[in-house]
Amino acid sequence: MCLANGWLMPRGRIRDIYEIRKSKIQGRGAFATRRIRPGQKIVEYVGDNISNDEADKRYDEEHMARHHTFLFTLDDDAVIDGNVRRNVARYINHSCDPNCEALIEDDRIWIYALRNIQPGVELAYDYQYERTGDNDDELEKFYVCRCGSPRCRGSIMKPARKRKKKKTKQRR
Ligand SMILES: C[S@@+](CC[C@H](N)C(=O)[O-])C[C@H]1O[C@@H](n2cnc3c(N)ncnc32)[C@H](O)[C@@H]1O
Ligand SMILES: [Zn+2]
């Protein structure tokens, strides 16, 4: 596993700062094995650099019962498909109250700790998926969030924009 982000142990052994195992959120997740400090660089999200069209070809969302992809938007033209063996970061789940964040630096995606993370705690960042349509029930179901946080907004998509209330003119 990601040696660059491990700790060098006596006699040259590398110990990872996280491990991959079953998650209560969804499928498998990444869990801290040591204390991780705020601002610590944890792992790079790597994969194939592809276009939006290629991403649509690889993941037919129309025929998925529930959203499940490994895509990470780099910019308007490029997407990283992280579904490659060497990308351990693909196991990091979403949380609406995350302890990590994903930052893009020189076209590379890095996962950083936002706060102190104790051993055993699952790593998670806010996916903030772009909303692909109106705020309808089907979309909410497709992108339902199971992070379990008291602050869960119910969706792995970006928060919906609040509709402005129309000002009602008072009659005299
Ligand atoms: C990059 S994968 C994360 C790893 C995933 N747990 C696995 O075992 O493959 C992204 C997918 O995991 C699922 N996922 C991640 N966080 C989630 C959450 N908070 N609620 C529901 N599904 C989530 C979604 O299906 C999403 O498309
Ligand atoms: Zn949530």
Q: What is this structure, in a nutshell?
A:
The protein has 172 residues and is mainly beta. The chain has two helices and twelve strands. The strands form five sheets. A three-stranded antiparallel sheet has the order 5-11-10, with no helix packed on it. Strands 6-8-7 form a three-stranded antiparallel sheet. The protein has a two-stranded antiparallel ribbon with strand order 1-2.
Summarize this structure as a short list of keywords or feature phrases.
Beta-clip-like, mainly beta, three-stranded antiparallel sheet, 172 residues, disordered N terminus, binds S-adenosylmethionine, 8% helix, 27% strand
Written overview of the protein:
The longest helix is centred in the N-terminal third of the chain and has 7 residues, at 52-58. This protein is mainly beta. The protein is 8% helix and 27% strand. The model is unreliable at 1-14 (pLDDT under 50). It has 2 helices and 12 strands; from the N terminus they run E-E-E-E-E-E-H-E-E-E-E-E-E-H. The protein has a single domain (3-142), classed as SET domain (Beta-clip-like), CATH 2.170.270. The strands form 5 sheets. It has a 3-stranded antiparallel sheet with strand order 5-11-10, with no helix packed on it. A 3-stranded antiparallel sheet has the order 6-8-7. It has a two-stranded antiparallel ribbon with strand order 1-2. Residues 96, 145, 147, 149, 152-153 line the site of zinc ion (ZN).
CATH top-level class? Mainly Beta
Count of discrete structural domains:
1
Strand/helix succession:
EEEEEEHEEEEEEH
Overall form = globular
The largest pleated sheet is described as:
3 strands, antiparallel
Regarding quaternary structure, how should these chains be classified?
single chain
CATH superfamily (homologous) name: SET domain
CATH architecture: Beta Complex
Percent of sequence in beta strands: 25-35%
Counting helices, strands and paired strands, the structural category is: mainly beta
Question: Compute the gyration radius: what is it?
Answer: 19 Å
